[in-house]
Amino acid sequence: MNIKDIIENKKRGNELTKEEIEFFVNGYTKGEITDYQASALIMAICLNGMVIREISDLTMAMAYSGEVLDLSDIAPNIVDKHSTGGVGDKITLILMPIIASIGVPVAKMSGRGLGITGGTVDKLQSIPGYVTDIDIKEFKQNVKEIGISLISQSMDLAPADKKIYALRDATACVDSIPLIASSIMSKKIASGAKNIILDVTCGKGAFMETKKDARVLSKLMKYIGKNSDRNVMCILTNMNEPVGYSVGNSLEVVEAVKALKGDMSEDVKEIILTFGSYMLKMAGLGDNIEENKARIMKEIESGKAYDKFVEVVKKQGGDISYIENLDKFEKAPYIMPVLSPKAGYVADLSAELVGRASVELGAGRQRKEDEIDPRVGIIVCKKTGDKVEKEEAIAYVHANSPEKAEEAVLKVKNAYTIVDKKVKKPSVILEIL
Ligand code: URA
Questions:
Q1: Which residues of 273-301 are buried (b: 16+ CB within 10 A; e: fewer)?
Q2: What topology does CATH give the domain 331-419?
Q3: How far is CA 386 from the centre of its chain?
Q4: Parallel, antiparallel, or unpaired: how do β-strands 148-152 and 106-110 relate?
Q5: Residue 187 designated active-site
Q6: Cβ(101)–Cβ(305) under 8 Å?
Q7: Whether pLDDT at 76 is above 80
Q8: Quick check: CB of 183 below 6 Å from ligand 1?
Q9: Does domain 3-49 have CATH number 3.30.559.30?
């Protein structure tokens, strides 16, 4: 078997055999297959797709490219969570400490930013000192000791996905259902949780633009989960506009910490309460969703959820003085307002355009080896349905150069559609599958 024939097969739209898929995944993980060969195959998969059997084989080959954890010795009721990606998506940073503080152990492996969507790992790394790449032993130990560990994709767990993920980001091969499903499910299977809740984002700032595609992706991931004895639940969420009010790494950490202290935007609150209450249910801590929501609010109000976040930051080497005093996060040197061109109501705020602007500011990567600037990003002050006055600041751009600031101001202005008539606020939770 050789990689050129495998690429040729997929280029012609043929189904790959299990052996061919394993040959590619193992060869690429070991460095025997080059980045350019892997890129060619990934692009062919993007263009020609895969049948369910190929996607399952790809998922399992990627999951077993490294260690597959068994967390049953820590707790049987671990619930893992993953998002298919979004703009301003800081939900993991808020939700997981809440859940851990209520008593559901959290062992979560996250990714870097991908395309225009941000990554939890990049956000965590904007906390000075926070180490995301700890080894598996320490990961498990942390979960045992404090009930939570938030790490990056270690080279021990699903290493094939780590390599393919970075390659896809740099070669415009992200928005492919087979590649997204196998990427997410391989990591989740390798991480060892039996219960998995997936935030399947849908809209202009997500990889799935339509509900139809989001449903296809959800059903596929549930199918893969079932075949590997995992209980998978999917919630479709609206990603037409950014989540919350900040986009960019340290800006989002600041928003997350404030949320953990109870200062949450309405959309973030709805996502947190919905996901959190279903996670408690999956963990066997209560079937009544409304009661679970009340329990989550209580956990936030008591300060215990915030304390749990401080605990995990400390455990993983982060400097908690930044969390205790958010003003310590270094600010970008150029902060410019985006002024509303007219009075009226926000009819649309394109997550895609805001996401693009934030990547160009340096909050995401253009190439896989690019460094992120944790300070830069965008604060949106007005979202869909909000009333605005002419010349009012509707957003702020945080940039590391005046040129980038000016470009981003124009882009963010274009991301807004402002109309004369009142506009209803959109729902955030679209469907539960
Ligand atoms: N999140 C992942 O982990 N992988 C993808 O492909 C998309 C989102």
A1: bbbbbbbbbbbebeeeeeebbebbbebbe
A2: Aldehyde Oxidoreductase; domain 3 (3.90.1170)
A3: 26
A4: parallel
A5: yes
A6: yes
A7: no
A8: yes
A9: no
> What residue owns the CA closest to ligand 1's atom 3?
184
Please state the pTM of the whole predicted model.
0.92
Pocket test for ligand 1, best of 165, 171, 208 (most atoms within 8 A of CB): 165
Would you give the DSSP letter of residue 117?
Answer: B
Can you tell me whether residue 240 is helix, strand or coil?
coil
Q: Hey, which CATH number is domain 79-324, 3.40.630.10, 3.90.850.10, 3.40.1030.10, 2.70.70.10?
A: 3.40.1030.10
Q: Residue 234 is encoded by which pair of tokens?
A: 């999917």
Q: Stretch 171-197: mean pLDDT, rounded?
A: 93
Q: Where are the domains of the chain?
A: 3-49, 79-324, 331-419
* CA dist., res. 128 & res. 16, Å (int): 45
Predicted confidence band at 332 (pLDDT cuts at 50, 70, 90)? very high
Q: How far is CA 159 from CA 165, 166, 213, 349, in A?
A: 10, 11, 27, 36
Active site annotation includes 89: no
Residues counted in the chain = 433
Residue with tokens 């195959």: 41
Q: How many CA atoms lie within 13 A of 270 on its CB side?
A: 15
Q: Average of pLDDT values for 220-230?
A: 95
128 confidence band (pLDDT: 50, 70, 90): very high
Q: Are 24 and 39 in contact (CB under 8 A)?
A: no
Residue with CA nearest ligand 1 atom 6: 180
Q: Is the pLDDT of residue 217 over 80?
A: yes
Closest by Cα among 194, 197, 178, 179 to 228: 194
pLDDT at 114 over 80: no
Angle formed by the axes of helices 3-11 and 18-30, nearest 10°: 130
Sign of the alpha-carbon dihedral angle for 24, 25, 30, 35: positive
pLDDT for 325 equals: 98
pLDDT of 239 above 90? yes
